[in-house]
């Protein structure tokens, strides 16, 4: 199938991920052969690892898998990517998130 469709499906299911879904994503990512898809998913997960958004921090464990980390040192310009910037001001209990996808 088209990489664009697969990436869109991934983003749709990751809006409300469960622990089981995170485990499934890890398993699928280990076997993924399409660089466009794997690069996008890895960049998305990496951004989730670094996010300040409290709603997205539950996904951090998947990125800490060193086996996966070594497999996805992909060129930033060549493949699809996810970009995310966020900040949280605990003292004011407020923050902001900006996200973009290049497919």
UniProtKB/TrEMBL annotation:
Coiled coil spans = none
Gene3D superfamilies, per database record = Vitellinogen, superhelical (1.25.10.20)
Q: State the UniProt keywords alphabetically.
A: Disulfide bond, Glycoprotein
Does the record's keyword annotation contain Glycoprotein?
yes
Ranges for the Vitellogenin domain? 1-45
Instruction: Give any GO molecular function from the UniProt entry.
Output: lipid transporter activity
Q: What is the name of this protein? A: Vitellogenin domain-containing protein
Q: What organism does the UniProt record list as the source?
A: Lottia gigantea (Giant owl limpet)
């Amino acid at each position: 199938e088209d990489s664009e469709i697969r990436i869109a499906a991934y983003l749709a299911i990751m809006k409300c991920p469960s622990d089981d879904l995170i485990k499934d994503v890890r398993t699928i990512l280990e076997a993924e052969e399409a660089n466009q898809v794997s690069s996008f998913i890895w960049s998305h997960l990496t951004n989730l690892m670094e996010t300040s958004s409290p709603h997205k921090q539950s996904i951090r464990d998947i990125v800490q898998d060193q086996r996966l980390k070594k497999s996805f040192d992909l060129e930033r310009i060549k493949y699809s990517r996810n970009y995310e910037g966020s900040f949280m001001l605990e003292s004011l209990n407020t923050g902001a998130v900006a996200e973009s996808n290049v497919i």
